[in-house]
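HUMAN: Would you supply a protein with fold tokens?

ASSISTANT:
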Amino acid sequence: MSKKKNKNGKLENFIISILPFSARTTKTLLVAFAIFNFAISGMLFSQTIQEEKEREMLAQNFIERVNNTRSIK
């Protein structure tokens, strides 16, 4: 049986070779890190959207107060 060489996965093979885990454990850790990273970026994105909504509400309140002040005079 001949082994096929993985030419495309040089970086993956390098990472696997320097970490003190088995290849399967390393791949599992990389996948877990990718999922964790995706979850964190999603949380930050939703927080950014929430902050943008709060800014819009503050701006709208300010505009309403300015208009009310003008209408009183």
